[in-house]
């Protein structure tokens, strides 16, 4: 939670704060519990299927790591549920407070990076099939995944420094504290930098890249008369759409809250407690929704009940590479 030590300490403010906490706590708990119940077995199933039952391809390596990032996050969800149930009174200590934020932001960064990798991989297969297939390998995908994890860890490491559990208003609040002292406003640039960099690197730039890739794919497919581009690589497309829908409210709220807080000179404003927990929980629904999408993309509901899970996942992750279709191999090299 992005906030700073509040300089307003009046009875009216405390009353608004308590009401805001009560309003958001129930919604946060309900969404978080649902995320945990669906996310642990769902992502565990994907990890088992892709890791042990199905042959890994150059692309499914990225989906395997995407599920691993989601699985690691949902393991920390119960801490947030307890925190919310105690009306945002953190009982788990400083270390777990830091790790909770660290894992959450790694999930945010790694997820969009893996989706960007999948999109770039698909785009290169369509635009330069012969050239790219000669250089494409699972070893390349493994190296790309290692790079994504390392980059995510580096970008999220500042949260280990800034996050802390501090006593405020007779509660232990686990939050991201960019301001070591209330009086020292020189640290304002730290919050602005972290939020804006996170928005650009972990959302805006990858989303623009992903959209560009699928526009190129769509134009290529239509020009080659190879069918409906929406049906090609559908698992990647629906996964990207789910990420965009879940994460857009959080990113917008973070930007608006940042500048609103500067104007109010109080980051610990009730609006943060009304909006932030809800958009935060909604964003991380994405960590449990992907396995559900894989099953439904893999087959209809009726057939899904009759098919084995292996068959469902095989269909969901069938690459259907356009470069293997008639006429495409003679395209641009």
From TrEMBL:
The keyword Transmembrane applies. Residues 42-294 form the G-protein coupled receptors family 1 profile domain. PROSITE patterns: G_PROTEIN_RECEP_F1_1 (PS00237), G_PROTEIN_RECEP_F1_2 (PS50262). It is a multi-pass membrane protein. GO terms for cellular component: plasma membrane. The chain crosses the membrane at residues 26-50, 62-81, 101-120, 140-162, 195-219, 231-253, 273-297. The keyword Membrane applies. Its main location: membrane. One of its GO terms (molecular function) is complement receptor activity. GO terms for biological process: inflammatory response; phospholipase C-activating G protein-coupled receptor signaling pathway; positive regulation of cytosolic calcium ion concentration. Keywords: G-protein coupled receptor, Membrane, Receptor, Transducer, Transmembrane, Transmembrane helix. It comes from the Eukaryota. It is found in: Membrane. PANTHER family: CHEMOTACTIC RECEPTOR (PTHR24225), G-PROTEIN COUPLED RECEPTORS FAMILY 1 PROFILE DOMAIN-CONTAINING PROTEIN (PTHR24225:SF24). Belongs to the chemokine-like receptor (CMKLR) family. Belongs to the G-protein coupled receptor 1 family. This is Probable G-protein coupled receptor 152. The gene is GPR152.
């Amino acid at each position: 939670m992005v906030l700073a030590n509040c300089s307003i300490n009046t009875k009216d403010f405390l009353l608004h704060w308590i009401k805001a906490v009560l309003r958001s706590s129930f919604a946060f708990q309900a969404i978080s519990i649902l995320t945990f119940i669906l996310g642990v077995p769902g992502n565990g199933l994907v990890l088992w299927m892709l890791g042990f039952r199905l042959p890994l391809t150059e692309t499914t390596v990225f989906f395997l790591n995407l599920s691993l990032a989601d699985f690691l996050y949902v393991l920390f969800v119960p801490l947030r549920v307890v925190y919310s149930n105690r009306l945002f009174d953190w009982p788990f200590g400083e270390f777990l407070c830091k790790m909770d934020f660290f894992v959450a932001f790694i999930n945010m960064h790694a997820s969009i990076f893996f989706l960007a990798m999948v999109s770039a991989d698909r785009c290169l297969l369509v635009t330069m099939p012969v050239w790219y297939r000669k250089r494409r390998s699972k070893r390349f995908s493994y190296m790309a995944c290692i790079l994504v994890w390392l980059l995510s860890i580096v970008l999220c490491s500042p949260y280990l420094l800034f996050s802390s559990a501090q006593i405020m208003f007779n509660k232990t609040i686990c939050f991201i504290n960019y301001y070591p002292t209330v009086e020292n406003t020189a640290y304002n640039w730290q919050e602005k930098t972290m939020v804006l960099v996170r928005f650009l690197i972990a959302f805006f730039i990858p989303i623009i890249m992903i959209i560009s890739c699928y526009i190129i794919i769509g134009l290529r497919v239509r020009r080659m008369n190879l069918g409906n581009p929406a049906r090609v690589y559908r698992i990647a497309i629906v996964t990207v759409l789910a990420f965009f829908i879940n994460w857009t409210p959080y990113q917008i709220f973070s930007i608006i809250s940042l500048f609103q807080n500067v104007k109010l000179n109080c980051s610990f404003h009730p609006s943060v407690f009304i909006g932030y927990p809800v958009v935060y929980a909604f964003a991380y629904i994405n960590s449990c929704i992907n396995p559900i999408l894989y099953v439904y993309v893999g087959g209809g509901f009726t057939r899904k009940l009759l098919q084995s899970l292996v068959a469902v996942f095989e269909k969901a992750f069938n690459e259907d590479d356009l470069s293997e279709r008639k006429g495409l191999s003679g395209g641009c090299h």
